[in-house]
Each structure stands twice: as C-alpha cells, then as structure tokens.
Amino acid sequence: MPKKEYLKKVMVIGSGPIVIGQAAEFDYAGTQACRALKEEGLEVVLVNSNPATIMTDTNVADRVYIEPLTPDFLEAIIAKERPDGLLATLGGQAGLNLAVNLYENGVLSNFNVELLGTSLEAIKKAEDRELFKATMQSIGQPIPESITVEDVESACDFAREIGYPIIVRPAYTMGGAGGGIVNNESELIDVVIRGLKYSMIGQVLVERSVAGWKEIEYEVMRDAADNCIVVCNMENFDPVGIHTGDSIVVAPSQTLSDHEYQMLRTASLNIIRELGIEGGCNAQYALDPHSNQYYVIEVNPRVSRSSALASKATGYPIAKVASKIAIGYHLDEIQNAVTKKTMACFEPTLDYLVVKFPRWPFDKFMFADRLLGTQMKATGEVMSIDRSFEGALLKAVRSLEIGVNHLQIPEMAKLSTEEVHKKLNVANDERIFMIAEALRRDIPVDEIHKITSVNTFFLNKIKGIVAMRRN
Amino acid sequence: MYMKGKLILEDGSVFYGNLVGDSVAVGEVVFNTGMTGYQEILTDPSYCGQIVALTYPLIGNYGVADLFQQSRKSFVRGFIISELCEDPSNYQCENTLTKYLTENKIPCIYGVDTRAITRRIRSNGTMKGVIVPEDTNEEEVKKYFSVLPEMQEVKEVTTPEVYVMDNQGPHIVVMDFGIKRNILHSLHNLGCKLTVLPADATSEEILKLNPDGIFLSNGPGDPKDVPYAIETIKELIGKKPIFGICLGHQLIALALGADTYKMKFGHRGSNQPVKNLLTGRVHITSQNHGYAVEEASLENIDVCITHRSVNDNTVEGMRHKNLPVFSVQYHPEASPGPDDNTYLFDEFMALLPKGV
C-alpha cells in the first residue's frame, strides 16, 4: 500500500531530557523520523523539551516547539497546529506514555488526530503486565510465573509460594527504574515499596527470576500487510539479572545454534504479529543454557535503545523505516538505504560482529553503589565493529575513555588471588576486568563460569586475549 | 598442530591459511551468508561438488551435534572459514567442528580473509578453486584445475536404495536428488507415509506404488545433468500431484519445456526475501541455488509465477495453471534458516486427493 495521502501534517514527540535509559539514541531515532517524513513531503511539527538535540535544529522539522513534554502543553500545540497524525513510538517511553495519555483523555479524537504506527491497543498489550501475560499465553509464548501487585502483602504471598530469587519490575517505567532482584522477604518489601512509588500506575510485577540464563534480544519490524523481518539479534555477555542497558552486548548472537536462533526468531515474529505492531519492536528472552526452554522477558512496542544499537550495528535504519511504515508504506515498498537497489524487506546478514560496552558515570559519582542489577545505571555506551570478538571487545574497552587500553586495571594486580576469586561474585562495572584478572591468575574458566554464569565461549575468548598479552 | 595451506581461485588469486587435515579439495567455490547453521550447510547434499565459504567470520561456536545433520554425510568438497572456534559452548554440543571435519575427512582452510574471497566471487562470478598444502607446486595445482567438472553429483548423493518412513496419512513418493533430512521430517510430521526412491527411478516404478502425491527434492549441480529425471517427471506430470523444491523445481520447469540458466554467484543464505505474488506477502527464505528458471522460457507454458526474489526478481516459485503441480526454488524446510515458509507443505497436503 502506498502512503496515506490524507496525511499532510504530522506531529512528532521528541526524546525529552536525557535520563538513564533514554539518552541520545532517541534523538538519533527522532531525527531519522523527522527526515523520513519530510522526505515524503509531509509538514513535520516537533515537540521536545530538550533544545540540546539534533532534532530541534531548524532544518530537521518544519516547526519546532521547545516546550515541556506534558499533556497540557501537547494539547495546546495540537490545538494550534491541528496535525493529521501523531508519531509517538520514536521518543522512547516518555513519548509513548504521553501518547497513551492524549488518547485516553480524548485529545486525539477531539482534534481528529490519527495515532500513527503502532496502535494504542498494541501498546497496551505490550506494556500492561496483565494484558501482556494474557496475550503471550494466548499464543503459547512462555513467560515467567508472575503476578501484578499494588500492595506489599500480595507480593510476599506470591514469593512464599514460588520461592526466591524474585524479580520486581514496576509497570510503565524506563530503564527498569525502581526494580530489582531480591533474595529474601525484607529485600522484597523494600523494592516493592520503591517500585510502587516509581510506577506511573502504582503497579509492580513480581516474577520468578531466571537470573543466570542467556539473555537474547531480537529487533523486529512489521508493516500493515503483516510482513515481518528480524533486523538483528543480540546476545548479552552478562546473563539475565543485569539490565540489558548495563550489559556488554554482542550482535549477532554467538552461542546459539541455528535451531535456537530460529526458535526465538519465530517467537519474535509471532509476538509482533499478535500485538499488531506497525513499526519496530524489541523482544527480550531468557534462554536456558541447559535446554531449549525460554521465557519472554520483555517486549518494547517501540523503537528502543536496543533498536539504535541494532540500527548502527547492521546499517538498517530502523527509525526511518518505522516512520515510513507509520504513514502507510509496506516493507517491500521502502528502499534499502544501504544498497539503494533492494528493498527494506530483508534481513541484514553480517560478516562481522559488534560489541556494545556500557559507560557508567561512577568516575563522577564516587560514592554511588556500583553494583549492577535490573535497574539501569549506565549513562552511555560505546559500540565497536570487528571481524573477531577479541578485536571488537578491545576496541570497545579503549573507546570507553576510562584510562585503560586493555582488559586490565592496574589496581587489581595488588589483590591476592583469593581476593580476586571472591570479587568475581560482585556484578559491578569492573567485573569483566576482574574476570580477566582471574584468568591472569590461572583461575580455570569453568570456575569463573560457575561464579559469574558468563558463558564459557566468552570466557575462553578473554582467556585467549590474556594469553596473547602474556606471550 | 595445524598445517599451512592455501586456497587458489581460477582467476589466479591465492589466500593463505591453516588446514584441518591434509587432504586436497577441488571444486566450485561458492559463499553462504548465513550467520548460524554451519553443520546444516555442511551436510546439505546440494553442496556436492562445491567448496563452501562462510561469510560469517566466527564458525564452530556451538560445536556440532547429530541432531543438526541434514544427510548421511557431508558432500561438500571443501570448507572455507575465517575463524574456527576450538572452545564451543552449547548444551547440545557433542563435538568440536574441527574434530568433525577431521573425522569426516572434509578439507577445510581457515584463518583466511573470507570477505575478500566473497568479493572476488561476487564480482567475477562463481569459479573453480583448490585447497592445497602451502608447499604444493604450480604443476600440481595446474593438474587439479584441469580435472573436468563432475556432472554426476546427483548419482553421488541420492539414496542407494529404496526406504520407507511409515505413517498413517497420505502416501508420498519422494524422488531423492540429494534430499535434506528436514524435508522428510516436515512431510512425515504432517502424517505422510514416505517412500524414498533413488534419482533414477522410472515413472513405472513410481506409479506402481500408487502414491497420493510425488515430492521432488533439492539436489546439487546443473539440472540439465540429470536428463533421466527430466524424462521421468515428464511422464508423471498430470498423473499425480507434484511438489518440487530447489533442483526439483528446476527439473519440473525443464520437464514442462522451459529453460534454466546458471546464475553469476547464486543465492545462498538464510536471509533471502521472496514475495508471494498470490498473497502479496514477503517471506524470508533459506536458499541454496546456483541455477534458476529462465522467466522468458515460461511464457508459452501453462504455468504462472507465484514467487519472486525481492532482491533480483528471479523466479522463486511457480504453479501449473491446470494441473496439480507447483514448486519453489527455496527451502521451506529451513535447517538452516527461517521457519516462515512451512505453509508450502500444507499447500501440498491440500493438493492431495481428499479422504486419504
């Protein structure tokens, strides 16, 4: 289907302030979106509260409003500009939440504004924990046993039933704010109270923890004709338990057989189809390292932080293609921006791999808790490309600009082997360096795997780096 | 300890690397772009006669397992890999790829620049190549290059004898030109009883079994190298419902009087987009073909094109206008590759006589 011709003016909700979990990647996505829409001759109205962005440059959108991203301000702008459509799936979670609010308060229908791309129903199916659970169950996609609670007592009841560890996730937040893994009742009570406070709707999800499993992500696109493709999959170096935003991530997956790769690919397509997403979507899985069992952990019905990574890693412009889908195009009608000859309806294949390494601000916040968990702490990331994992990893380490050029932190040399062994247990920002230090002390790979749950494939690669340096 | 070796292409380019084992490989060099599924690729009989280069640089990461085997053995002439993983990690891993290659005497060169090799093939087309120990002299290399093309690949890979996979549902005769295990599994899982016949089975032998349908498998080489099968298929068309995959698709085209041609570097990978012209939907497919059906040659024949490659518009599927005969150029059984296309097996089932 060609473009929806009745669309003349489209409003884009921008990325807002830079906070953990929603940083420059949404400026990147929003800028791509504005350009893609303008390319189609549409008038673009952009609203963003953050003037320190590319998208608010005067040549990106036709009209730029630098105003607070609140329902009232957006309503006033809609009243003034009278756009035909609203594109909200590119501004991260904040943009999505605003769109939900504008829809539910009748603003969109009052002013006859079409919500473009993914429908509100789809957004709710992915974001509302109970609806999500029901939707996944209806298509046979396994999710960890869980309940949504609005008070502490119900959370404790559930935990008594299925046992610890338990993971707590507040509904409608970004970067996992307010959540965490807990190992006993007193921790559970603390985190649930905090989570209830952070959640926009006063709900938290309490679920069985699959900490230690492989964490795998898929970036998927779908158009209104139900064509679906996978842009890229990714494997986290850090197993489930550490927020993917705080994990070292490799694209494509390294330790999945074709059977496992296709099993999760098929799951991703079934999910995006059932949700009815029109645009980009990110699905996260926990895969048991000892069987084919998996759980769907999370689905983001929008362009996400991982989409930016997948986009950069493959050259596939996810935000641009999602914008074109939102205004009516099908994947086989959108030009592949890389080849210029073929169409966007294909799955990129790589002859290299990509490593994403998070950048934490602990050098600026000396007294912050450096432990990593389900709440994202990184404020940035670097990405590197190479034909070997070793090459990509070392390039990433150097690009961090944290004063090291190698998998070695000099202070760690002063620790006794016993201390190194003990510290492997600590999942903080320096763990990969501690792993390298442990390998330097000839602590066996299997031993390190037992403590960290990091896949032996990655540990052996680091061992190779350490051995090469030694020689 | 490994041995130094080299890959020499017909255009004179030489790539130095390490060898697994010490045997020599001679064959047509092709590349596959899949990022997973190296064992399925190794054991896909359609690669018989070919030296396969993998464009993804890290190979062997999850080891090998009998479960992933696609035929009784590997028929590739050689394997070209950038980095060969010696420390695989996966719960299903039974062996390292290195050991598998050694035990099965599959010549392999690794530590070579597979991107450079792929670019050569992309710009110059598929060409002959040899993998030899580094100290092999020019005379010997020349001798290897002078070996004539084999043209008997189907005979090499087809089942030596008839076998049956019993079941309660419809009876399908499978003509085995080099079938992948997962095609048999896909049909068997749908309830079919399968009788698998060698490629040179005659139409009398097939019809005597009175099957409900006939399946024509994938296989290696030029479809014109198996004229006997083309003759057999001519005699079967119209008598029974027929479904063909890959080589089977090309053979149907030839049997109907259409033509096939050799492509510059073919389609080999797990990410090939194909448009179903009947539904408008695009599916990602697994492909492995160096030949294709000539579109112009279909003009005066009673078939319609049902599938097309989104990348280069080549014919990827067709259906007879009046008879129960259809075929696709790609691999709906995946292994390796996406599971988007299993609907084709259902369409075959729908084509079979009712009530069986």
Secondary-structure-based class of chain A equals alpha+beta
The average pLDDT score of chain A comes to: 92
What is the tally of helical segments of chain B? Answer: 10
Q: Please identify the oligomeric state.
A: heterodimer
Main-sheet strand order of chain B equals 10-12-11-13-14-19-18-17-15-16
How widely separated are the two ends of chain B?
59 Å
Q: What fraction strand of chain A?
A: 15-25%
Stated plainly, the CATH topology of the largest domain in chain B is called Rossmann fold
Biggest pleated sheet of chain A: 7 strands, antiparallel
- The strand line-up of the biggest sheet of chain A is 14-13-10-11-12-15-16
Largest interface: A-B, 42 and 46 residues
What is the total domain count of chain A?
4
Number of strands of chain A: 16
* Mean of pLDDT of chain B: 95
**Uncertain residue ranges of chain B:** none
Range of helix content of chain B: 10-25%
* Radius of gyration of chain A, in angstroms, nearest whole number: 22 Å
CA distance, first residue to last residue of chain A: 61 Å
Q: What name is given to the CATH topology of the largest domain in chain A?
A: D-amino Acid Aminotransferase, Chain A, domain 1
Principal-axes geometry of chain A comes out as globular
Any overview of this molecule?
The complex is a heterodimer of chains A (471) and B (356). Chain A is an alpha+beta fold and 471 residues long. In chain A, 37% of the residues lie in helices and 18% in strands. In chain A, the strands form 3 sheets. In chain A, strands 14-13-10-11-12-15-16 form a 7-stranded antiparallel beta sheet, with helices on both faces. Chain A has a 5-stranded parallel beta sheet with strand order 3-2-1-4-5, with helices on both faces. Chain A has a 4-stranded antiparallel beta sheet with strand order 6-9-7-8, with helices on one face. Chain A is globular and about 70 Å long. Chain B folds into 2 domains: 3-145, 3-Layer(bba) Sandwich (Glucose Oxidase, domain 1), CATH 3.50.30.20; 153-351, Rossmann fold. Chain B is 22% helix and 32% strand. Chain B has 10 helices and 19 strands. Chain B has helices spanning 38-42, 97-103, 114-124, 138-145, 153-157, 181-189, 203-208, 227-236, 247-255, 343-351; strands at 3-9, 14-20, 25-32, 50-54, 58-59, 78-81, 83-84, 108-110, 127-133, 163-165, 171-176, 193-198, 213-216, 242-245, 260-276, 282-293, 303-309, 315-320, 325-328. The model of chain B has no long low-confidence stretch (mean pLDDT 95). Classes of the chains: A alpha+beta (471), B alpha/beta (356). Chain A binds chain B through residues 225-227, 229-230, 252-262, 265-266, 269, 289-291, 331-332, 342-343, 345-353, 387-389, 455-457, 460, and chain B through 33-37, 40, 55-58, 61-62, 65, 67-68, 82-83, 85, 87-92, 114-115, 118, 269-273, 275, 280-282, 284, 310-311, 334-340.
